[in-house]
Amino acid sequence: MKYGRQPGLERQARLKPQFAALYPGVAAGEWMPAWALAEQLLARAEEQGVSPGERVCVPAHIEFRGGGKRPPELRNLRTRAVDSR
């Protein structure tokens, strides 16, 4: 169990296969824990010199599934740097 979440409720993500060429080195078409895909995207962005605070992918290039609802204390929390702009 990661971060105290219930098994089977972990959010999953995958890079859509049609966008694989835009993200070399990132597995496309495979469902994986969302945090693992995020780590791949962040590592790729660091290698390319993307500035901190910039998005590391186009959200429409990623699919998500699963995961439970956010706990009440986190529901209105803006978690992305760009959300505060």
Give an account of the 3D structure:
This protein has one helix spanning 34-48, and strands at 12-15, 32-33, 62-65. By secondary structure, it is α+β, with helices and mostly antiparallel strands. The protein has one domain. The longest helix is centred in the middle third of the chain and has 15 residues, at 34-48. 6% of the residues are buried.
Please tag this protein with its features.
85 residues
Number of strands: 3
- What global shape is seen? globular
Helix content: 10-25%
Order of helices and strands: EEHE
Low-confidence stretches: none
Report how far apart the termini are: 34 Å
Layout: helices, strands, pairs:
Layout: E1 12-15, E2 32-33, H1 34-48, E3 62-65
Antiparallel strand pairs: 1-2, 1-3
Question: What is shown here, in short?
Answer:
This protein is α+β, with helices and mostly antiparallel strands.
